[in-house]
Amino acid sequence: MTTITIPPGSNLDPYLMANRINTRFVLGPGSYRLGTGWAFDKDHDHCCLGFDCELVGAGSRETFIYANPVRIPEGAKQIESLTAGSRSEYCESTVIRGLTLVADHEGDLGTVVDPGIGVIGIHTWACRTTIEDVVVQGVQGTRPDREGFGVLVNAPGVYIAIDEFDTQPVGGSRIENVEVTGSGYVCGVYIGYPRPAETSIARNIRVSSCGEGSAHAAFGTNGGVLWSGLSNHGRWQRAVFCDTAGGESTVISGSHLRAENVLVEFRGSTGMKWKDIVVTDSLLEVTPAKDRTYAAALVLARDGEKPGPEFDGVAIQNCTIRGGDGDHYTGSIDSAGKNNGVFYCRLTGSAWKSPVLAGGFGGMREFGTVRL
After folding, report:
1. What is the DSSP letter of 73?
2. pLDDT tens track for 108-157
3. Which of 43, 116, 148, 358 could form a disulfide with 139 if both were Cys (CB 3.0 to 4.6 A apart)?
């Protein structure tokens, strides 16, 4: 691997454009600049950091990258501050470590973007992603279609499935010691491997909502991720949410999650499957905002016509679940399912009601809970 040291005060764009494969870029203490037009740059595969490259700073409290909003086409709904890997080809790995990324920043290269545009902090497209000791600030989004993300992890644009079930040759990613701050229609951290061959680790992650109103979702997940040590602060509609592609074999544990509407929600359309998604051994708090009268611990829902997605083994178990004012339900389901529910939990702070089985469907139970 080639190593290139970039001096503080530099614009990163020329270095990243000139060195696209198997390169480690080393940043020192201080500030750097980065343009946000990469997502629209086909000549460089829409990615700042190329194939199997690394971007390594001196630490998240030492190295700062200011993503300046430049080269944004008219009508764009989102901009991406730091992209890595490959959107159109195969990429084995990408590493981002030891830095703070400030998105939506007014600096030497441009002016602040339209406040309605979706701002994504870090977006990777690789079989294996490592993001460690990283802070992302300034992500934002507006409904209905300008969603922002703090950290968004996806598979590369091209891969060869390893079996007839379209299992992706991805996983083994590590997202660790990460902080995200954002506002509006945003998801803090989302790991989007629906059918990974290996398990990924995501731990010690803190996301904060800092704007007016409640943000969309603190965490998003598909399959094959062991999450732990998660916390979200400020106002969030949901703590955990996903409505894309399905997934299986994901566990969230040892976390403190908060929401104003739903703590854990998965949904989708017919043909999608969610299997063995478990939140366990955590403290969960749901407190409806003043303009809301409904809250739930676990929601499994369909988008569109029946029968909807299949839910199997999606559960909250061995948790303490605190409620606020208003009606609280342990869960609801309006799609096909089995073995889903809220099990062996302590329910406090509200008169919790039993699960709602809508549209003639079953597939959700509650047992072993204690109401205090």
Report:
1. P
2. 444 455 667 888 999 999 999 999 999 999 999 888 888 999 999 999 98
3. 148
